[in-house]
Amino acid sequence: MAPPLSRRHLFQAAALAAVTPAISYAATGRAVAAVSEEPSVWTVRPFALEDVKLEQGVFADKRQLMLDHARGYDVNRLLQVFRANAGLATGGAVAPGGWEGLDGEANGNLRGHYTGHFLTMLSQAYAGTGEQVFVDKIRTMVEALTEVREALRRDPVVLNSPGKFGTSAENVRGSYQYVDLPAGVLGGASAITLSAWVRPTHDANWTRIFDFGDNTTRYLYLAARNANGVPRFAITTSGPGGEQGLDGTAALPLNQWSHLAVTIAGGTGTLYVNGTAVARNTSMSLAPAALGTLANNWLGRSNYSGDPVFAGAYDEFDVWSRALTAGEITQLQTARAADVSTGRGDLASYAFDETTGGTFADASGRGLTATLRRTWGGPSHPGFLAAYPETQFIDLESRTSPDYTKVWAPYYTAHKILRGLLDAHSATDDARALDLASGLCDWMYSRLSKLPDATLQRMWGIFSSGEFGGIVEAIVDLHALTGKAEHLALARLFDLDKLIDACAANTDILDGLHANQHIPIFTGLVRLYDATGEERYLTAAKNFWGMVVPGRMYGIGGTSTAEFWKASGVIAGTISTTTAETCCAYNLLKLSRMLFFHEQSPKYMDYYERALYNQVLGSKQDRSDAEKPLVTYFIGLTPGHVRDYTPKQGTTCCEGTGMESATKYQDSVYFKKADGTALYVNLYSPSTLTWAEKGVTVTQTTAYPAEQGTTLRIQGSAAFALRLRVPSWATAGFRVTVNGRAVSGTPTPGSYFTVSRTWRSGDTVRVAIPFRLRVEKALDDPSLQTLFYGPVNLVARNPATEYLPFGLYRNAGLSGDLLPTLTPVAGKPLHYTLDGTEFAPFSEGTEDPTHAYFRRSEPRVVLGTVDSGVANPAKADGTTLLDEIWAAAPFAGKGALVSRVRSVVDAWVSAGLLARADGDKVVSTAGKASFAA
Fold this sequence. Notes:
The chain is an alpha+beta fold. Strands 31, 32, 33, 34, 35, 36, 37, 38 and 39 form a nine-stranded mixed beta sheet that branches. The longest helix is centred in the first third of the chain and has 22 residues, at 132-153. It is elongated and about 115 Å long.
């Protein structure tokens, strides 16, 4: 068991997950790395993003597209939902919409998550480029979020805007604020007039201009819009079935002032809109006197909890104990009540002239001061920070089943905000960001620490509603900065024991689980192991990784179908238009690198290369946009699928992680051994590493994967072992030279090849990694295959919607390389044609219809392009004659291949699978044919 770590040995937060180390803001305005300690259990450590500079190449090109988006997007749009929730002015900013808007999926119950992603993207962008624009945006956001938290801590205060006659009280949509009037405001009147000037800003049905009642049985209200979109007044003592009502004839215009008045007297009720009587009910037997003294007397809020809060502004609200005449109503159209013959309402009169505070004076003479309130009261703890009320968190504590229209992963959203704040602190050394992050976790601890363990287990086990993303990782990272015992205790409150215990025992229970809800849990468990030394956390994470890779992994490195996992080994049977949720690849990459810090198994970096060079690169469209990041949600692997780079309604989780991925491509190119004695080169990517502790700079120059190798040049002098990853697919050789001289040794695919020496300035390491074209077969259907050339997944571009049949043996080389069967496309590296169809790298973010999988079809025995005229027989398990011949590749020469053909043919003839005459034809064809190397 790893020893428990003291707080002083925990790694500083952001260098872990976002790989953006804590930095201080130097006088020059450039980021400088701060000293930090890393977990002693890590045998390998990462470099900070600013230590690895991306040079020109596919990664720099893709990143540039995302940087353009980051530079151009107005962060005030992201802040709009936070400011609105706090009742602050939004400056006219328009919320992003989609998952970040009240009109988006599930009523915007996930809003705020995207802001956290954006903060992380900006932080990584700054670390990677040093551009001041990113710091400026971060600081704008942190300052705004600080103001939001402060506003949430206090009672609501009036937000002014220009009124009909003077100032008005603005109720921003999303603020959940209303005006609470004292009991007795209606005065038990038998005749009444209620008059209001309003400027609605949203067209939601059933928003109340006013609602006076006890519950949903006894009330009177005026709705700005009923189910038909027109104003409605109603009064009842027996619920909705007993309502006596007045309905308008036209919708109130948005963003314009409208005057509404209701009069009741002598059994007649009249509704006026802008001075015109639009509805009259002469059978209105109820008046306020029938209601008695009511408990809830509200402007902007309904007694029906499911109705939305009024969004817009109030100028005047008056109540008279008589029915005004039509002429008096007309007078109110051009002047305040105080300035016409009616005078102010004698039961209540509010001019909304206040510019500060949260109360409104009553000018009726009755002293009925009104108070601005929130429907949800306010936060339970001063650390609360969110773009919506605390109600989702409260609801989750008693919820037993998922319903994302009520509760949509509130702790997931809290994680994104927390992670973004930690990364912002790391990028700018802004103490406010750390204070916000710490306060957020203090609030979470105040809620969760009071709950029984059974409640927590139930919560975290609920699909979607109980999803909490990578919050454990972020909390442990925060604990490394604050040292607060409560923060580490908080991280452990998210333990989902059923999942942890099963994976620790290597029991696969993933079938039917939501993939992205569970993957980031395990990165958090690794960090808990770092902080506590509890072995089951690390064991569970390692075993879990092995349950996903390769048994639930598609060729591009992605996992999940329709966001869920099926049984291990079912690949062909799960291919759909909704495979490979992009978030899943993002989180599996994080887990893979985290596990590598503990155990330098090359399989983790093999997976990293696969997913990064294929799904992650291919998930970003090859163009920039100021409005959208242009990143996929799902990547359908069905034949002819066209990628959707503007998924769902926008601002989705995958667009968020996509923004992050595109600004940290360099995070795992190099690692260093904990004691500084070795440098791991994990990825072959054009880049420059500054290894300050060693006084060494390593420049990697390559066009990989268009180039089959790389060159590393050393500046500085230091002794260390250079460990070069030998990809598991590198079966055609892996050759290393230093200053032109071959390095002895036998590199093994799926390992690291070590070159140890004292390095001097100018030393040059050349690595050659010949590629071969190969196939990977779906585990549950070997005839369904995907094509790889080195690390590159090649996909067919074809609009057909059925699996395309392709044969690959017809011109296979003696090495076993299938590439000679394909024809290169001139001027387009890594593009080939076969049977009239173009194959291209999956990483290219185009909108071409693609085929990631194809149906392998080798109907006849063709060798060296010579057709034997013999049908290609197959065994019961699907293995064909050609499969068995080529399984022995590579061949030392043609003679060895012909010998293999003869021995396989003899075996198949003996087994009754091939006629002798046909076998002789096959052998003869092999002898006549010419083969590529």
